[in-house]
UniProtKB/TrEMBL annotation:
Its main location: membrane. Keywords: Cell outer membrane, Membrane, Signal. Belongs to the SusD family. One of its GO terms (cellular component) is cell outer membrane. It is found in: Cell outer membrane. This is RagB/SusD family nutrient uptake outer membrane protein. Residues 20-222 form the SusD-like N-terminal domain. The keyword Kinase does not apply.
Length: 502
């Protein structure tokens, strides 16, 4: 029997049963058609797409963003090396049957399906508080928008699905244009912005707020202004305005110490707009990065893990991107470790941001910060420069990022001095690009920044030539997007076509 891969369809739906938001753990499969009867049922339903995000951020999104960029590489991973290296190395053919490309597609549409089930079923449920009903819808629409934002940046044109599909309907869905998908994302985020609260009680901390919706909308507008839609100045103005709304929200501020951002005891800080929530404890809600990011060949010298993978290792170019003395480097990565026994230094780079050193293995407390205020500051500065306006304001926000970085080690004037006014917009934009790279390193932003600013070819050709002998003349613009998974095309060849060049 032919399988439906187009939308990652599932017939059963996963729910959660405890009161505390992060503790919610899928424990049973219930038929989505008959379960929803009360407000409590709908609360459980809303939490299912949140839980699904954990699968996407565990590894899937890292493959198609950080590792695709010049920030990180697969240093060594046992098994499936061809699928991994073809994502990392532009000199290797990236095939449409790539396991990781397929997993991103399927898990993304699984998450969208969970959001759509909420939206399809909620209208039939009686609420004593209609504001709560609209909030639940807004949460589902935010998560749907977030996942579609990933899909459209990874694959380009993708199927737009705004309701729960039957198997028969799945065969009728083709790819919608990139612009249509972006407009769909904007529509969802505007609804979310209008109906989400500014904060939650402690038991629900981690659910998306109005600040998260505004922040993501600012990022979406910035992307629409650049490649591939190239909507330009009007959308830079929209991004500027929306970013400023976030900046002016009193509940958000930069955390004084950069290191504290990634402290597992200080999650969901004043800088955080939206985090993917993880919690250790053997209930499948923990994060895996202790294990995944440990350097290859290490033997528990760095962190207490079991099987090291060498996955997502910083590149030499990433290491060189930090200015001398920048405290963000030692917080974010290391160029090596000291082996035991022997005490010799092993030159194997590894990511440090996501280490819960109090625990071992792949069940840890680290959250993944998807949106934070520093990102918004830098987007705001860039939007101003791209419109040729308020360069003094843009410079102020750029320097706020450097000020926080140097304050992390006591504010030494010799470390990361403020930028002086720039002689040209081009010089200013390169400085912003550099600050975004080191400030947001290993947080899944770099690849998409290079694509939207049309800098990917120049930057990655040079990095690949140095690391892998890649001939820059071999670059093709189809490399800016990933192939549509082969199994998706095979399941619906009349409606789903392949991206150019694959």
């Amino acid at each position: 029997m032919k399988k439906i891969y187009l939308l990652g369809l599932i017939s059963l739906f996963t729910f959660s049963c405890k009161e505390d938001f992060i503790d919610l753990q899928p424990i049973s499969d219930m038929n989505a058609g008959i379960f929803y009867k009360t407000e409590k049922d709908m609360n459980q339903a809303v939490l299912s797409p949140y839980a699904s995000l954990r699968s996407l951020y565990n590894q899937n999104f890292i493959y198609v963003s950080e590792i695709r960029s010049d920030n990180t590489t697969f240093s060594w991973v046992p098994g499936n090396s061809k699928d991994m290296t073809s994502i990392d190395n532009f000199g290797d053919p990236l095939l449409s049957d790539n396991t990781y490309v397929t997993n991103v597609w399927n898990d993304s549409y699984n998450t969208i399906l969970r959001s759509n089930i909420v939206l399809d079923k909620i209208e039939a449920v009686t609420f004593t508080d209609n504001k709560l009903k609209e909030q639940y819808k807004a949460e589902a629409r935010f998560i749907r928008a977030l996942v579609y934002f990933w899909l459209v940046r990874v694959y380009g044109d993708v199927p737009k699905v705004d309701h729960q599909l039957s198997v028969q309907e799945a065969y009728t869905i083709g790819r919608s244009s990139t612009e249509e998908i972006y407009n769909f994302i904007v529509e969802d985020l505007k609804f979310a912005e209008a109906n989400l609260p500014a904060s939650y009680a402690a038991v629900d901390k981690g659910r998306v707020t109005v600040g998260g919706a505004k922040g993501l909308l600012a990022k979406v507008y910035m992307t629409m202004a650049g490649y591939p839609l190239k909507k330009g100045a009007p959308y830079y103005a929209l991004a500027e305005a929306k970013a400023l709304e976030v900046i002016n929200m009193p509940q958000y501020s930069l955390v004084p110490d950069y290191k504290a951002l990634f402290d597992v005891t200080k999650k969901n800080s004043s800088e955080s707009l939206f985090e993917i929530q993880y919690k250790k404890g053997g209930t499948s809600t923990g994060s895996p990065w202790n294990n995944d990011f440990a350097p290859r060949f290490s033997n528990r010298e760095v962190v207490q893990v079991g099987d090291k993978s060498g996955f997502n290792a910083p590149t030499p170019d990433m290491s060189k991107a930090y200015e001398p003395g920048d405290p963000r480097k030692s917080i974010s990565m290391s160029d090596g470790y000291v082996a035991v026994p022997g005490g010799q230094t092993v030159n194997e780079k590894y990511v440090k941001k996501y280490y819960d050193v109090s625990f071992s293995g792949s069940d840890n407390d680290n959250n993944w910060i998807e949106l934070r205020l520093a990102d918004i500051y830098l987007l705001y500065a860039e939007a101003l420069v791209r419109q040729g306006k308020q360069q003094d304001v843009a410079l102020m926000y750029l320097n706020k990022i450097r000020e926080r970085a140097r304050n992390s080690i006591g504010g030494s004037a010799n470390i990361l001095p403020d930028y002086a006014p720039f002689s040209s917009d081009a010089e200013f934009l390169l400085a912003i690009e550099k600050e975004r790279r080191v400030e947001l390193a290993f947080e899944n932003h770099r690849w998409f920044d290079l694509v939207r600013t049309e800098r990917a070819k120049a930057v990655l050709s040079a990095e690949q030539k140095e690391q892998n002998g890649f001939d820059p003349a071999a670059w093709k613009d189809n490399m800016l997007f990933f192939p549509i998974p082969l199994q998706v095309i095979q399941s619906n060849p009349e409606k789903i076509n392949q991206n150019p060049g694959y």
